[in-house]
UniProtKB/TrEMBL annotation:
<dbReference type="GO" id="GO:0016705">
    <property type="term" value="F:oxidoreductase activity, acting on paired donors, with incorporation or reduction of molecular oxygen"/>
</dbReference>
<dbReference type="InterPro" id="IPR002397">
    <property type="entry name" value="Cyt_P450_B"/>
</dbReference>
<keyword id="KW-0479">Metal-binding</keyword>
<dbReference type="GO" id="GO:0004497">
    <property type="term" value="F:monooxygenase activity"/>
</dbReference>
<dbReference type="GO" id="GO:0005506">
    <property type="term" value="F:iron ion binding"/>
</dbReference>
<keyword id="KW-0349">Heme</keyword>
<dbReference type="InterPro" id="IPR017972">
    <property type="entry name" value="Cyt_P450_CS"/>
</dbReference>
<dbReference type="InterPro" id="IPR001128">
    <property type="entry name" value="Cyt_P450"/>
</dbReference>
<dbReference type="InterPro" id="IPR036396">
    <property type="entry name" value="Cyt_P450_sf"/>
</dbReference>
<keyword id="KW-0408">Iron</keyword>
<comment type="similarity">
    <text>Belongs to the cytochrome P450 family.</text>
</comment>
<keyword id="KW-0503">Monooxygenase</keyword>
<dbReference type="GO" id="GO:0020037">
    <property type="term" value="F:heme binding"/>
</dbReference>
<dbReference type="Pfam" id="PF00067">
    <property type="entry name" value="p450"/>
</dbReference>
<protein>
    <submittedName>
        <fullName>Cytochrome P450</fullName>
    </submittedName>
</protein>
<keyword id="KW-0560">Oxidoreductase</keyword>
Length: 406
């Protein structure tokens, strides 16, 4: 029988975990016995949580679940997206129009052209970290500056203005439930970033010689065909900055943690660098970097998913980390297999909202893993797991620091 929306079983979300590098144990229990459950978010909204791989894919591909409806007042899980015009929160036909324009910046050819720059930057960052000597913080030395530099180069942000970008992006990383006043801080950061991007767009528009960057490309689309508004350009830049920067930083930190838990895994990438592409896919599948709040959708009509009757207007979250540990899809799903073939993970989503920057993320992770494994074959975590500090309220979980020694 379908589960009633008034079910007394209401789980507080995000779930508590003993080790923040691992998904909550309760997810495995839910996949087996109760795959679509009622949850309550930190700011009080009740929603459904979908945990099985097949059901997550089904919701992500179903047009009856709206992303845009999740940005309305009182339902938005993240203050920065309330009323957002960002591609990530659009529905067709607006989504179709904007994605067609911005996808030109993420073609396989353009991403491959970035490879020498990204690999060189990763190697330089690791070399500088080594020169400073151990212990060194992987996050501040490599995992944070690599994606931030790449995103800023894509947008054409001048080097002396990138520090402000980082400050705003850090402030916009939280759900708004971490501390009193956090929501106002997030909104202030969003407004400051919007103002900066508007100024940057005006400067690029006035430049005598067009630059070869993403904002200039989007400006041409706006000027030639009037298909992209300045608000949409700014919103896309914000999502690119926050998602591309923090997601990659978190993914790399989690990947190194899982590799170093078993030194033989890490050493394998040093001895067999040809495994790095499959290792990247497996580490993306295996890692737990987000709670799933940004996957929120709202049902536009009554839909049955996984035996649960979801009513029109109810919010739904997709647990990507749970789907990626679904044993019906991934044999020995809780094992980290760096040579795993046919890896159908959902780390980049599914359906029309599949991550535009997936290939760029893969490139950055592969470049960083290669640089680290090649230069630091004896790297290890310099502190115990219990000594790592985790800020509360993060959308993309990563420790404050990740000290390495070698």
């Amino acid at each position: 029988m379908p589960q009633s929306p008034q079910s007394p079983q209401l789980h507080r979300f995000p779930f508590q975990v003993a080790n923040k590098f691992e998904p909550p144990d309760v997810l495995a229990e839910m996949r087996a016995a109760d795959p679509v459950v009622r949850i309550v978010l930190p700011f009080g909204l009740e929603a459904w949580l979908v945990t099985r791989h097949a059901d997550v894919r089904a919701v992500a591909a179903d047009p009856r679940f709206s992303k845009q409806a999740a940005t309305t007042a009182g339902r938005s899980p993240i203050p920065m997206v309330s009323g957002s015009k960002a591609l990530f929160w659009m529905d067709p036909p607006e989504h179709t129009r904007v994605r067609k324009i911005v996808s030109a910046a993420f073609t396989a050819r353009r991403i491959e052209a970035l490879r020498p720059r990204v690999e060189g930057l990763a190697a330089d960052l690791v070399d500088r970290m080594i020169a400073k000597g151990p212990p060194a913080d992987l996050i501040t030395e490599v995992a944070l500056p690599l994606p931030l530099a790449v995103i800023c180069e894509l947008l054409g942000v001048p080097g002396d203005e990138r520090e402000r970008f980082q400050e705003w992006a850090d402030q916009m990383l939280f759900t708004g439930a971490a501390a009193p006043g956090q929501v106002e801080q997030i909104r202030a950061a969003r407004e400051a970033l919007d103002e900066y991007l508007g100024d940057l767009i005006r400067r690029k528009k006035a430049a005598p010689t067009p630059a070869d960057d993403m904002l200039t490309m989007l400006l041409r689309a706006h000027d030639e065909d009037a298909r992209l508004t300045e608000e949409e350009m700014r919103a896309f830049s914000v999502v690119l900055l926050v998602a591309g920067y923090h997601t990659t930083t978190g993914s790399l930190t989690h990947a190194i943690y899982h590799l170093l838990r078993d030194p033989a895994r890490y050493r394998l990438l040093h001895d067999r660098p040809e495994l790095i592409p499959t290792a990247v896919e497996e580490l993306l599948r295996y890692s737990q970097i987000g709670s799933g709040i940004v996957t929120m959708r709202v049902a536009t009509e009554d839909v049955e998913i996984g035996g649960a009757e979801i009513k029109a207007g109810e919010a739904v979250l997709l647990s990507i980390s749970s789907a990626n540990r679904d044993g019906s899809v991934f044999p020995d799903a809780d094992a980290l297999d760096l040579a795993r073939a046919d890896n159908q993970h959902l780390a980049f989503g599914h359906g029309i909202h599949f991550c535009l920057g997936a290939q760029l993320g893969r490139l950055e992770l592969g470049a960083a893993l290669s640089a680290l494994a090649t230069r630091l074959p004896k790297a290890r975590l310099a502190v115990s797991d219990s000594e790592l500090s985790w800020p509360p309220g993060q959308m993309i979980a990563r420790p404050v620091t990740f000290p390495l020694t070698w």
